[in-house]
């Protein structure tokens, strides 16, 4: 399996989470906005913050690296500029892909 990685800016909802989330290897689910013909398509990812700080409720534009754990998204999924919803049991925030990484 070839992992797809990309950099993104992530913002977490103020009230969506009760506690901080780990800075490294935190599992999330993404839903790509406007890119997938199936609006119910969700993709599993692992998120690591680039600054080593945990993700906190109310964070705005936290820089992260995302690694897709499934091949449910096609090769053109999540291009730079694509917006997505971020889920952790429920919708907890949103983000914007800043660039795809070559792996």
Description:
This protein has 103 residues and is mainly β. It has one domain (5-101): Elongation Factor Tu (Ef-tu), domain 3 (Beta Barrel), CATH 2.40.30.10. Helices cover 0% and strands 44% of the residues. The protein is built from no helices and six strands. Strands 1-4-3-2-5-6 form a six-stranded antiparallel β-barrel. A hairpin with a 3-residue loop joins strand 5 and strand 6. The protein is globular, with a radius of gyration of 12 Å.
Topology:
Layout: E1 5-12, E2 26-32, E3 43-49, E4 62-68, E5 83-87, E6 91-101
What characterizes the major β-sheet? 6 strands, antiparallel, barrel
Q: How many discrete domains?
A: 1
Quick one: CATH superfamily?
Answer: Translation factors
- Which strand order spans the largest sheet, edge to edge or round the barrel? 1-4-3-2-5-6
Order of helices and strands: EEEEEE
Briefly note the structural class of the backbone.
Answer: mainly beta
The CATH class designation is Mainly Beta
Distance between the termini: 11 Å
Distinct helical segment count: 0
- Strand share of the residues? 35-45%
* Estimated helix fraction: under 10%
- In total, the number of strands is 6
Tell me the CATH architecture: Beta Barrel
Write down the Rg: 12 Å
Shape: globular
- Using the coordinates shown, work out and report the CATH topology: Elongation Factor Tu (Ef-tu), domain 3
